Every structure is written in C-alpha cells, then in structure tokens.
Amino acid sequence: MSTPKDFTTGVGSDVRTSQRRVLFITRRTSAMVKRTDEEQVQTYPAALVRAALAFELLTIGLVLMSLFFNAPLEGIADPTNTPNPAKAPWYFLGLQEMLHYFPPVVAGVMIPAVLVAGLIVIPYFNVNIEADGMFVKDRARRLRIFYLAAPLLSVFLLYFDVYVALVPTLLVAGFMLLAAHSGPGSASSLRRYLASRAVSWWIMTWFLVELIVLTVVGTFFRGPGWSWVWPWRS
User: Fold this and answer.
1) Which of 12, 15, 77, 214 is deepest in the core (most CB within 10 A)?
2) What does the pLDDT read at residue 214?
C-alpha cells in the first residue's frame, strides 16, 4: 500500500510564498500573485512607428541628396576603352582589395564562405549569452586563446603582405589587451567601457574596421594596375 501524501492547508494571499495544495483566502485578503512585471514595448505602435519614421527620414534624405548632388556615374560602357583600373561598386571594393593580396579561391570563396557559415553556426552555440565582458569570466583561459589567435592571424596577414588589414588587426588587439588588464573598478572611463565589452562586440568591431579600411583603400588609394597612389596626386 502506497504511503499517502501529506496535504497541508494554510492561510495566506501569496501562492508563491505559500505553496499549498489547499489555501483558504480570508475576507480581508485577495487571491493575487505578488510579482513585478518587466518593462515591455508593444510592437504597435511603438516599434512600427519608429521604423516608419526612420524609413521616411532616410527617404527624404536620399531625395534631397539626389536633388542637390550629382551621382558619381561614368559614361556609357565602351568595350574598346576599358578603364584602368576597373573598379567594382564601392560596396564590393573591400572584396576587390582582398583579391589583390589573396588567390581568387581564398578571397572570393573561402573567406566569404567562412563568414557566412560563422553567422549561421554561432547562434546555435552558447557563446557569452549574458554579454559579460570578454575577460570578466574565465579570464586565464580566454587570455590563452587570445594570445594564440591574435599572433596566428597577424602572421597569416603578414605572410600575404596584407598590411592594410594587419594594422587594424593590431590596433584592435591592442585595445583588447587594454580591456584584459582593466575592470569595472578602473579609474578611466574608457578602460571600464572596454572591460565591459563582450566577445561578440570585439568580433563585430574588428570586422567593421577591416571592412571600412579595405573599402577606403580600394576607393581612394588604388590607381592604374591597382598600384598604390596617394589620393591628392593625379
């Protein structure tokens, strides 16, 4: 014969603190759960109105730019007169700049494939979901990974003579070292800010800096034959 369960009763108004199977509610109390609701933002109208406003402002800005500034378009394409250098649109110039250093398979296939695969795979891993500072938790292990990954990436860029990508990489690595030796109690506001940045922030920052530098170099510093030229010299 099974042992009967111990059902107890009590008097109270909060079922969270008084977890009973049977609870008597007195006349002067109410059967309510005492909890605090988190702040919420409704999709409509709060989010949709902001998105619509941003879209309208962007459209107005583009219209004004098209009215007062001429688009930097060249003449009609002439197959008998190929421009030198033949540059891609500005949003592809970063990729074209990488093609100058790496073999086409590496710059045009492997690197974009790795980036896309990383964007697809990373969300399925438990990678700093709490968004804590990169070196706040498990500092010793993360420093070892950093000291291994940063030199390997630098040597890889140095081997292919990709100095325009090596300099931003070393710059970001320097700030990461500063963050590793900083903390929430640092005197400098910059060091406190860097110490609180998560690993995703550092990866995205490095990616954006590299993209901007490669695009700027491909746009303003490349001349005939994709040789290096200064933008203020013809």
Assistant:
1) 214
2) 92
Nearest alpha carbon to residue 97 among 224, 229, 216? 216
List pLDDT tens digits, range 138-194: 888 888 989 999 999 899 889 888 889 999 999 999 999 998 888 878 888 888 888
What is the number of domains present in the chain?
Answer: 1
- The single-letter code of the amino acid at 160 is F
Instruction: Flag residues of the chain having pLDDT under 70.
Output: 1-39, 41, 123, 125-131, 234
In a domain, 222, yes or no: yes
Buried b (16+ CB within 10 A) or exposed e, 136-156: beeeeebbeebeeebeebeee
- Measured at the CA of 219, the angle between CA 218 and CA 221, to 5 degrees, comes to 70
8 Å CB contact between 198 and 210: no
Q: Is 118 left (phi over 0), alpha (psi -120 to 50) or beta?
A: alpha
Q: Say whether 68 sits in a helix, a strand or coil.
A: helix
Around Cβ 198, how many Cβ atoms within 10 Å? 17
Name 222's bridge partners: 228
Rounded Cα distance between 27 and 34, Å, is 18
What is the structure's pLDDT at 110?
85
Kindly state whether residue 55 falls inside one of the protein's structural domains.
no
In a domain, 96, yes or no: yes
Give me the domain span that covers residue 153: 86-125+134-226
* Pairing mode of beta strands 22-24, 9-11: parallel
pLDDT of 155 reads 92
3 is written with which tokens? 């042992």
- Answer whether residue 192 is part of any domain: yes
